[in-house]
Amino acid sequence: MLLFATGGISTWLAQLGVDNRLATMLVLIVIDFLVGVGAALRMGTFRLSYIGKFGQTDILGKVLPWAVVYVLAKATGSTNIIPGIDLDTAQDGLFVVMVGALGGSIISSLKDLGVFANLPSGVAGNEAVDPRPPVAKG
To answer: Facing residues of 86 across strands?
Structure first.
């Protein structure tokens, strides 16, 4: 079992820098930021403190964890973390989850702008949705 693949941290970071998945996440983050700021301005809820929170949740909470798992996957090669799943598979799955989260945030902001006004709150909204059917009054 090979614990560390060939190469070094500079090689693995260089591979991260040219990976299309990193570019995809960064483009989605820029779109999410711009659409989110536009929605907040339109709704009159914009606060400068939200920009810091955005950086914390999107950069530190999405890109950085994926990038760490990406570099670890390159460092460990095909070493399984559990039978049948290596870190490369794990970082692929994490990427899908992060892109889904960014996509959901973009859709929610577009709904706030009125683009997807007819979408139910459970599809694009920040509020919790009660999964129970409405009770008939009468």
So the answer is: 80
Residue 70, both tokens: 């990406």
Which residues make beta-bridge pairs with 82? 85
Is 136 part of a structural domain of the chain?
no
Q: By residue range, what is the domain housing residue 63?
A: 9-112
Domains held by the chain: number: 1
* 121 within a domain of the structure (yes/no): no
137 is a domain residue: no
- What confidence tens digit (pLDDT) does each residue in 78-127 have? 677 788 888 888 888 999 999 998 998 898 888 888 887 777 666 655 55
The two three-digit tokens of residue 42, written as one number: 């339109």
Q: Concatenate the DSSP letters of all residues of 66-111 into one string.
A: HHHHHHHHHHHTT-EEETTEEHHHHHHHHHHHHHHHHHHHHHHHHH
Dump the DSSP string for 12-63.
Answer: HHHHHHT-HHHHHHHHHHHHHHHHHHHHHHHHT---THHHHHHIIIIIIIII
Assess if residue 30 is contained within a domain.
Answer: yes
Q: Which amino acid is at 10?
A: S
Question: Is the CB of residue 76 less than 8 Å from the CB of residue 4?
Answer: yes
